[in-house]
Amino acid sequence: MTKSIYSILLAVIFLFNLTPASAYNPSVNTTTIPYQVYTADSLIETRAEYLGELKGDPQMYEFTIGADTKLSARVWQLETGNPIPFSIIAVRQNNQNAGVAEVGRLKANEIVWEKTRDSVLGLSFLKSKAFESEIGPGIYRIEVSTPDNVGKYMLTIGEKRVSSGYFGTLAEVRKIQSFFGKSIFAIFTSSYIYYPLGIVILSVLIFITWRKRELIKSKHA
């Protein structure tokens, strides 16, 4: 019996290690001063999630790159009925305090929000199309806004995902869920929980059934 339980535990650990990590890299915009700039990761090819809430003013993200790079960004919001009219604009800071030059933008009235379900996060979102542009070395800013600058959002920059392991991904999932007001029990809506857990429960039930049959056989032997 003890050896069988030990084997099940080893199988569970092996299952967790086999589960591919759909990694996230979330950070919460904690700026409190209007138009205060939030420093974003300069490795803009690697996907990062910036969680922000507009409370009367736009929010800006700044990053610096040293080589030609592809910029890919989009804005997400929870699917709760009427979409919040978010828009984003990317600008490049010109040299010698000569102002900024627009790189591109996604206008609120031009965004067709696409409904999508993220099974790992256990959340349904509306997402904008991706804003993409080839950019050179320099300092850049991305501004997120709405007409009245109110609402929660998730800004994603980059496309390449970097694995953070099973339990690391669960911590990231919980951080995003919590930001959008979901309780601790929402973690059970994540496929990273219910899928392995279902397999574990099924394995235990099969084991119990097998043990009962073995005991019945031994009694009639």
The tally of strands reads 12
C-alpha end-to-end distance: 19 Å
Helix share, percent: 25-40%
- Estimate the strand proportion: 25-35%
Q: Structural class, from helix and strand content?
A: alpha+beta
What are the main properties of this structure?
221 residues; alpha+beta; seven-stranded mixed β-sheet; five-stranded mixed β-sheet; 3 helices; 27% helix; elongated
Overview of the structural elements:
With 221 residues, this protein is an alpha+beta fold. The protein contains three helices and twelve strands, in the order H-E-E-E-E-E-E-E-E-E-E-E-E-H-H. It has helices at residues 2-18, 166-179, 191-219; strands at 26-28, 37-39, 48-55, 59-65, 69-78, 87-93, 100-106, 114-118, 123-127, 131-135, 138-145, 150-157. Strands 1, 3, 5, 8, 9, 10 and 12 form a seven-stranded mixed beta sheet that branches. Strands 2-4-11-6-7 form a five-stranded mixed beta sheet, with no helix packed on it. It is elongated and about 90 Å long. The chain starts with a helix and ends with a helix. The mean pLDDT is 85.
Give a brief outline of the structure:
This protein has 221 residues and is an alpha+beta fold.
How is this fold's topology laid out?
Blueprint: H1 2-18, E1 26-28, E2 37-39, E3 48-55, E4 59-65, E5 69-78, E6 87-93, E7 100-106, E8 114-118, E9 123-127, E10 131-135, E11 138-145, E12 150-157, H2 166-179, H3 191-219
Parallel strand pairs: 1-3, 2-4
Antiparallel strand pairs: 3-12, 4-11, 5-9, 5-10, 5-12, 6-7, 6-11, 8-9
Helix pairs in contact: 1-3
